[in-house]
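Technical annex B. To support the medicinal chemistry partners, we prepared a structural model of the target in complex with flavin-adenine dinucleotide, based solely on the information shown next.
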Amino acid sequence: MSRFIDRRQFITELSLSAVALGLAPRIARATRRGDIKLAGQPQNVVVLGGGLAGLAAAFELKKAGHNVTVLEARKFPGGRVQTIRDFAAGQYAEAGASVFPQSHVFTYGYATDFGLPLRPAFRAGVDSMANIRGNQFRISSTGPTNIPFQVTSSERAAGVFGLISLYLGSYMNEVGNPRKPNWPPPDLSAIDAVSLKHLLLDLGASDGAIDIIAASQLGLLGFGLDSFSAMEGVVTEAIGSDPIFYEIVDGNDQLASALKRKVKKQFWKSSVVTRIEHNDSGVTVTYTNSGGIQTISADRVVCTLPFPVLKDIEVFPAFPEDKQLAINELKLTPVTRTYLQFRTRVWEQAGLSGYGLSDLPIQNTYSPTLTQLGKPGILTSYTGGQRALDLGVMSESDRQSYVLRKMGNLFSGLDNQYTGGTSQIWHEDPWARGGFTYFEPGQMATLLPIAQRPEGRIHFAGEHTSAWHGWMNGALESGNRAAEEVNNAGSVATLVVGGDQFPKGEMT
Ligand SMILES: Cc1cc2nc3c(=O)[nH]c(=O)nc-3n(C[C@H](O)[C@H](O)[C@H](O)COP(=O)(O)OP(=O)(O)OC[C@H]3O[C@@H](n4cnc5c(N)ncnc54)[C@H](O)[C@@H]3O)c2cc1C
C-alpha cells in the first residue's frame, strides 16, 4: 500500500537504537516461491487478469509444464504496477506500487531473479514535514521532534514515527507468517471485530497521537482509522516494518514486463472478460477483443480480477452465497495521486525529503525524484478515502492548482518553480476501481479465507486474497498459491470441455 517512510525513517535514522530494535516486530516471512513440480497431466489454464498475481500464476504454471493463457483487459501487463514517464529530464513516478522491503520475498525474489537493478528508496539525513491540527512542524531526522500539541509523555518520548510501535508493537509481534496453517493467531482474530481507532483508544492513545497516526500512511487506508479492522492495521504495519525499502531503478513496471516476457505469446492483451461458465469438468470464459465476442475453454481458471470488477461479471452457475458476499463486500480504497513537476527541488535545498504527513486535503506528500538524478523534481500528493474522492472529481487543472496551494502549508517556495503535472485516480480506473483492499471491522478474519477459497475449477488470486494485500508481494504470493492449487488439483485426472481450445487472441 504505502511507502512506509515513517517507520523506515524512525528505525534507520535513530540508527537502530536499542529502543527501535526492542520495538521492531518479527518480520512476517513467506517461505515458498515457485518450484512447482508437475503433478499429473499438463492442464489448460486460463488466467483472468495480467497484473502481478496473474503473471506470477501464469509464469509458475508454465514453468511447471501447464498450458497457460492470460486474458488482460489493458494494452499492457502489470495492472496496478504502472510507471508514469512523462516528466522532465527523463524523470518518472510510480502510478501505483512504489517500494518494497526484502522480507517481501516474492517481490524481492522475482526482481532479483530477473536481474532488475534495485536501490534503497530513501536518502539519509533529510527531514520530513507535518501539518496537523493547524500546526506546521518539521520532523527531524537526527534528533527529537517537538510535537506542538498535547500528547502524553510516553507518546512524546516515542516521537511521531514511534507511535505505531508504542501502541501496536506487541500485536505486530503476533503476526508471524500469514502463509502458515491456522493463521491468524487468536490474539489477532480477537481484534478483527473493532476498528483500529477503537483499539488505539482502548490502549490509551491520546487524541493528539491518534491524529498523528491518522495523518501518517495508515490514514490512507479505507476511509480513515475508524473504517478498517484493527487486525488489518496491525497486519499492514507488521508486514511493512523492515528498516529498508527498495525500488526498481527506472521503474517498477519492469517487473511486470519481465514476468510477461516469460509468459510470452500466451499474454493476450485488450481481452476483456465478460462471463465465466463452469461445471465439474471445465470452465468456459467469454471475453471481447478487437475481433468481437470470443470464448475460451480450459480445465481450470485462475481469477485475479479485483472483486469490485468481478462483481459485475456474469458467473454461471453463481458462486456460493458466502463467496458472492465476499465479492460484493470487499472494498478497495479510493486513491488519488497528484504529481507536480518543479523546475528545481526547493524542498531539498531546505534539507527536506518531500515527505509530508498532514490532515490537510492533500494528506501525504512524497517526492518520487528523491532517488533520481537531475535538477527538476516531482512532489506527489497521495490521498486515500474521502480526500481521494474529493480531489478525484476536480478537473486536472483545478486539482493541480489546489494541490499546489495546499502544498504551501508544508513546503515554501514552490509557486515560482511549478511547471505542470498529472494525476492518477485509481477509483476511476475501470479495471481496478480502487487502489488497494481494506478490510472493514470484522472482515479480515472471516472474508479473507473465503476470498482465497477455490470454487470448483476456479481458483482465486490477487492482492485482495492475500494477507500481504495492498502490496505487490500479496499479488505475487497469491499467484503462487493459486498456481500450486491448480497443479495439485491436476494430480486428479481432468477432462477438457468442448469448444475452441485457445483460439487466436490479440498477442503482444
Ligand atoms: C496507489 C498505490 C500504491 C501502492 N503502493 C505499493 C507499494 O509501495 N509497494 C507495493 O508492494 N505495493 C503497492 N501497491 C499495491 C500493488 O500495486 C498491488 O497490490 C498489486 O499490484 C495488485 O496486483 P494484482 O495482480 O492483485 O491486481 P491488478 O494489478 O489490479 O491486476 C488485475 C488485472 O486484471 C485486469 N482486469 C480487470 N478487469 C478485467 C477484465 N474484465 N478482463 C480482463 N482483465 C481485467 C486489470 O487490467 C489488471 O491488469 C500500491 C497500489 C496502489 C494503487
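Notes passed to the chemistry partners:
The radius of gyration is 23 Å.
The chain is about 30% helix and 20% strand.
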